[in-house]
Amino acid sequence: MDNHEDRANFHDMSQSTQEDWQIIMRHNIPFSQNGGQRILDHLRLLDGDFGGFAVDRLTHSLQTATRAHRDGRDEDYVVMALLHDIGDTLGAANHPDIAAAILKPFVSEKLHWIVQNHGIFQGHNFFHHLGLDRDMREKFRGHEWFADTEEFIDKYDCPSFDPDYDTLPLEFFEPMVTKLFRHPLNSIYKREAEAVA
Question: What SUPFAM superfamilies does this protein map onto (predicted)?
Answer without folding.
Answer: HD-domain/PDEase-like
